[in-house]
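Action item from last meeting closed. Structure (268 res):
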């Protein structure tokens, strides 16, 4: 909530945003474009683009924001990449705001509310429910932006990049426990280091190292939930040779230690 105007710097990050406005009015800036958002509007932002709330026009400005990582549904390939296109294909003509005059903002707000009710997702059922509601919201967005995606050359470029990176995503599914250097990744997709880093960040919103850590931690969560293996053993199996570093990364991404995460899971 913002009661008055405050100076906010332009920012960018590795996750996506869906922002539903409950009250008030504000100006938003995305890259070099600016637009107004008011009650019951929906804002769709790829966090990799510089953005900010630039001015509160009518206070208090209240909003509910759903943040999610690009790989929340798994690697950005195939069907998953289609879900993400309203974020990945945000070019200079993209309309980041969906008006309250349309039904979509209210539908998205309802789904965000359902996601809120199953958080934190400490069970298989809760994780499935959260993912299902997120998929439903993303399908609604894809349908809303279908005409833009169809004519967007940026969309075509993103599809091309995803196809180029596909062999790497396939490789990670099998070899994620191994040490995977950046040079190995670039050789798999036959790209220069600079080209690969730009392309990978465009598709996933993350650096390769950050994505690999996120991928391994997701595998660790599954093992913590489905096996009695020790934390040390799981750490090794998902590719961390140092258990202390594994614990540090796990806590940074999950906001719990591995032990706390396992303890919070429902008992069979």
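Sequence:
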């Amino acid at each position: 909530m913002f009661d008055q105007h405050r100076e906010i710097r332009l920012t960018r990050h590795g996750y996506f945003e869906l922002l539903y406005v409950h009250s008030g009015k504000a100006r938003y800036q995305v890259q070099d474009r600016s637009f107004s958002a008011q009650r019951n509007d929906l804002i769709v932002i790829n966090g990799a683009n510089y953005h900010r709330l630039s001015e509160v026009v009518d206070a208090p400005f209240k909003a509910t924001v759903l943040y999610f990582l690009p790989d929340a549904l798994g690697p950005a390939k195939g069907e998953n990449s289609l879900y993400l296109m309203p974020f990945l294909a945000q070019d200079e003509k993209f309309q980041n705001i969906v008006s309250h005059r349309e039904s979509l903002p209210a539908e998205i707000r309802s789904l965000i509310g359902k996601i809120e009710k199953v958080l934190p997702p400490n069970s298989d059922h809760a994780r499935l429910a959260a993912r299902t509601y997120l998929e439903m919201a993303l399908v609604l967005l894809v349908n809303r932006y279908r005409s833009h995606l169809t004519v967007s050359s940026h969309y075509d470029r993103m599809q091309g990049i995803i196809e180029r990176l596909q062999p790497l995503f396939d490789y990670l599914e099998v070899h994620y426990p191994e040490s995977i250097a950046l040079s190995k990744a670039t050789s798999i997709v036959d790209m220069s280091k600079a080209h690969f880093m730009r392309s990978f960040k465009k598709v996933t919103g993350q650096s390769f190292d950050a994505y690999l850590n996120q991928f391994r931690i997701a595998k660790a969560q599954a093992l913590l939930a489905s096996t009695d293996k020790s934390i040390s053993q799981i750490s090794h199996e998902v590719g961390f040779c140092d258990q202390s570093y594994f614990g540090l990364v796990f806590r940074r991404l999950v906001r719990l230690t591995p032990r706390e995460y396992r303890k919070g899971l429902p008992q069979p």
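Note appended to the action item: The CA atoms of residues 26 and 56 lie 4 Å apart.
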